[in-house]
Amino acid sequence: MAQEVSEYLNQNPRVAAWVETLRCEGETDKHWRHRREFLLRNAGDLVPATPEEAADAESGTRSRQLQQLVSFSMAWANHVFLGCRYPQKVMDKILSMAEGIKVTDAPIHTTRDELVAKKG
Question: Residue 63: its pLDDT value, please?
């Protein structure tokens, strides 16, 4: 899938430039590669079609939807790479949004509940 994302971005430089603006400063390449795929899969009509639309993206409903998408992408990446947990409603949402994204090199995390269950 990473190859498909790269090809898509090569064919759509405006989208590539837009999605790069969403990358966090300290984000590793591995973390970003997967979060970028999450963003692109779920961006839909949030991707600006023109430079003017990109400038207008800061206002209104579109801005709130974009902020929510970025938040969901960060929550998903934090869950996958850092083992963070969120309320069940959020977990259900981010996992459904990430359906089909293959992360083969993610760390395996053990929760406190799993550790306690093993001791019991």
Answer: 82
